[in-house]
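Intended use. Records such as the Vacuolar protein sorting-associated protein 35 entry shown here are meant for training and evaluating sequence-to-structure methods. They are not intended to support clinical decisions.
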Amino acid sequence: MIANGVEDEEKWLAAAIAGLQQNAFYMHRALDSNNLRDALKYSAQMLSELRTSKLSPHKYYELYMRAFDELRKLEMFFKEETRRGCSIIDLYELVQHAGNILPRLYLLCTVGSVYIKSKEAPAKDVLKDLVEMCRGIQHPVRGLFLRSYLSQVSRDKLPDIGSEYEGDAETVMDAVEFVLQNFTEMNKLWVRMQHQGPAREKEKREKERSELRDLVGKNLHVLSQIEGVDLEMYKDTVLPRVLEQVVNCKDELAQFYLMDCVIQVFPDEYHLQTLEVLLGACPQLQPSVDVKTVLSRLMERLSNYAASSAEVLPEFLQVEAFSKLNNAIGTVIEAQVDMPIFGAVTLYSSLLTFTLHVHPDRLDYADQVLGACFKKLSSKGKLDDSRATKQIVALLSAPLEKYNDVVTALKLSNYPKVMEYLDSETNKVMATVIIQSIMKNKTNISTAGKVEALFELITGLIKDLDGAHEEVDEDDFNEEQNSVARLIQMLHNDDPEEMYKIICTVRKWIMTGGPRRLPFTVPPLVFSSLKLVRTLQGQDQGQDENPFGDESSITPKKIFQLLNQTIEVLSTVPAPELALQLYLQCAEAANDSDLEPVAYEFFTQAYILYEEEVSDSKAQVTALHLMIGTLQRMVVFGVENRDTLTHKATGYSAKLLKKLINAELFMGVHISFGVLICLKRALRIANAAQQMSNAARGSTGSAMLFVEILNKYLYFFEKENPQITAAVIQSLIELIKTEMQSESVTPDLVLMLSLPAHCGTFSSRNRKVEQLVKGMSPSRHDGVVG
């Protein structure tokens, strides 16, 4: 059926165009021969094709444009006729003899255009006659196009100020009256279209009406272009008449479109000065009208107007724009009880944007808007509308974008209250936006109170919200927690007392994050605390320490106590490797602070973690390297504590399963004393590895291991360690030679894999050793048993 209807319409259009073109042909021939009577006859027959009711508005428009082109040619002919002496008044009377009213009125409008140009009669009289005569067509589509033609041919002939058709002082009002009357009649015809045809085709008719809306809206554009329409006339005449027609038509489509037209076509300063009148019409619109969009676009235009120049801001204060808009939005929301929460939040979002542009210094206004939004949200409970959620994010993002300062947003008491109504996922998105704003603008959150308020806002990233059980993508989770970690590192205050309060506040929040978050959030807190420790070290230099201490002051010892408690939580996560690393970092910081008992306690905790929690052999190797490396840098320990920690590290190395790894680790425990003991023990382990090598012929493991031990001996020999003598090195070289000869592998391969690149071949290494030995003092030639 639909396909057949489209095909039929195409046939009707083709037939109408054919008839129009045929009569246009005869009209052209009459025009060429200056035959006025035939020209009128065939033009009337041509225009009769517009009387059809079979075409949709879209197809009718195609036919109308063909007729419009022909009418322009006919108008030029009428001008020529008046130059040849034909009376324009007689011509105006003659065209009214056309048989059908629609062709008659098209011809009358065409001649009327020439009549106004001739100036033989006042423009206002001709226009008034034409607009009244057009009432003869009451068919919606035909009437709309006829009046559209009238508007088009008369728009440059209105008696406006500065126009060649300007008459006395009242002519501007006549021009306005003409456009308003034509607009009113067109709107009535447009609204009447919804009642044409069966109810089942209502949706189709609404679509067709939407296609014709610009025909009506052009009248408002013409009104806005009339020079004589100043603010006073707009306020007293134009706006009241337009709004009266908008409200009285009681049509959803017409009301929304025309209100939007008024907002878009008239100047911003007019809207500002007539704000109360314009806003007063909004509650009178039909409940189904999308008022939120109308008001949002109005506030958007006013916001842009305010942003265009600082000179216009006093006008906003003068008319109390914020108060009027705020009251209007409240009235509209109360009047439209069925307005979805999405609509209400959109209005408040637009109002907040307006407020931030016009009154950036009035935080109380912004907080008032947020409070009104919170009140509306509290009456609806938790949101389940994704569109409303997006609008809340836009609402909360506006202050961040305007001020580029989260600290300013923290001053808004209703900000966190609105944020509570976001679902857990969106809450995290908003928290991420806040953190990104801090990062981008390098905002300094410098007090514990501000940190408390900030973490209240980003709670969704700090801990699991109530009722949030959805699965989280691992990559997204990691990215979120990394952003929190970066935020923690940015928190700073030069005052140690306040910085310590910030650290305690952050610790209180992150301890609620659960085992998944702690590995991300504890490290930055630890390093921020260690930074504070080093700051205190710098302040304490040159000052005498109070032997009795000061409980109210912040000391490194107090911070280390807090860190010990914090890192201890990681062992229950479990994240033993991370906790071990942090303990070692703290031990090194305690070393710099000359706190031997504290450093020893941290090392003890690291050793306990190693013994009880680190079971993987690779992780053990890494942990041992860290512990031994840190132990090397420690200078705070006395002989007893150092000896205890060193022997423990040596014992851990000996217990590892792989002997090849054991020897290398033993060589790592070469603290400034006991070097020879460690190296000898490494040789004993290497001998054990040699036995393993003999069991698997072709393995170069033991030879490589002896070369590594030689490297260590040479290192301490060059450093002039008195315990390492030439005899020890020479015996080790001989041992390596013997080992290489007994293995089925070439010495060059072993040395290529094992010796440092700068050492060259084994023979060159041997020569180097001989040179070193020759240069030694006699006392160092004493043999030492290997």
